[in-house]
Amino acid sequence: MMQLFHSIGRTAALVYLASAVVAGTACTICSAAPAEIVVVQGADIKPFDDALEGFESTCECTISEVIISGSETSDIAGRARRLHPDAVLALGADALAKVRTIRDIPIFYTMTAGARHPFGELSNLSGVSMFISAERQIDAIRELFPGARRIGIIYDARNTAALIERTIQYGRSNSVEVVAKQTSSARDVQSLLEGMKGQIDVLMMVPDVTVTTPETLDSMLLFSFRNRVPIFTFSEKYVQQGAVAALIVAPYDLGAQTGEIARKLMREKAERTAVRSYAKKQVLMINTRIAKKLGIVISDAIMKKSVKVK
């Protein structure tokens, strides 16, 4: 009988010891502090605030400070380093340019253009581009305008070469010809549009700072109305001004997707690999008034799942 009690006591002790180890491990995990991230924000504007809110909703981190890159401090990277964060989040292209010299901790970016960044050599750079993938844009155009077989694009290779190349390749594989005209000056846009008369079914605007200006937008809208060629764009404001449709992303969603990447990479502290993505969530926006003026009939199925601008 004593031997049985002794055996039970030893078993209980082992159970107690194992429980203590498990509890200690759990306690260590629980006590691990969340990553501290310094935010460098390109400007104090609502889209950046929304992106930051989305980032905080998913990153499981602590925002230790928000630095506006247009402030009086010129050495933004130095100021961020002195705060000794675990990582830096850059909101906007200007903010990213200010922190690109930081190499010893992760940099996350969003609200910038291009999954292939001009700072692509940085192995510590991860984030989400405002660009929507070429594949998704072509698919949206084909769905919205089923008869369209020729898509016109004007672009500056210094800004959007990778996006246009991918658009051409994906279009070719889906029986869509992409008529891409290259320029390095906004002054050429008018003449390039004239050369597209009768050559395209849809004019696709891309987020290229060289060719997308208030003046070139007027030229594009005039071309659209005169030739009954719909414009497919990337921004809500251009749909409001006369484009037929746009595939857009919400800043909050961009921030949330970036936060998911940050959470994953900050947990994998041993080997970090840069993750650079296009936006996953998009919203199709349609200007029904302009579509009607151009004689474009949009299916009920598409109308039901889109946001309408009247």
Strand line-up of the largest beta sheet: 7-6-8-9-10-12-13
Unreliable runs = 1-8, 11-31
Please count the helical segments: 12
Order of helices and strands: HEHEHEHEEHEHEHEHEHEHEEHHE
Radius of gyration computed on alpha carbons: 26 Å
Give the percentage of residues in beta strands: 15-25%
Average pLDDT taken over every residue: 86
Question: What does this 3D model show about the protein?
Answer:
The protein has helices at 2-31, 46-59, 76-82, 93-99, 134-144, 157-173, 189-194, 214-227, 236-241, 251-267, 288-293, 300-304, and strands at residues 35-41, 61-68, 87-91, 107-112, 125-129, 150-155, 177-182, 202-204, 231-233, 245-248, 276-278, 283-287, 307-309. The protein is an alpha/beta fold and 310 residues long. The protein has a seven-stranded mixed beta sheet with strand order 7-6-8-9-10-12-13, sandwiched between helices. It has a six-stranded parallel beta sheet with strand order 2-1-3-4-5-11, sandwiched between helices. Helix 2 runs parallel beside helix 10 and helix 5 (134-144) packs across helix 6 (157-173). It is elongated, with a radius of gyration of 26 Å. 36% of the residues are buried. Residues 1-8 and 11-31 have low confidence and may be disordered.
Based on the model shown, name its key terms.
single chain, 310 residues, alpha/beta, 7-stranded mixed sheet, 6-stranded parallel sheet, 12 helices, elongated, disordered N terminus
Task: Give the topology.
Blueprint: H1 2-31, E1 35-41, H2 46-59, E2 61-68, H3 76-82, E3 87-91, H4 93-99, E4 107-112, E5 125-129, H5 134-144, E6 150-155, H6 157-173, E7 177-182, H7 189-194, E8 202-204, H8 214-227, E9 231-233, H9 236-241, E10 245-248, H10 251-267, E11 276-278, E12 283-287, H11 288-293, H12 300-304, E13 307-309
Parallel strand pairs: 1-2, 1-3, 3-4, 4-5, 5-11, 6-7, 6-8, 8-9, 9-10, 12-13
Antiparallel strand pairs: 10-12
Helix pairs in contact: 2-10, 5-6
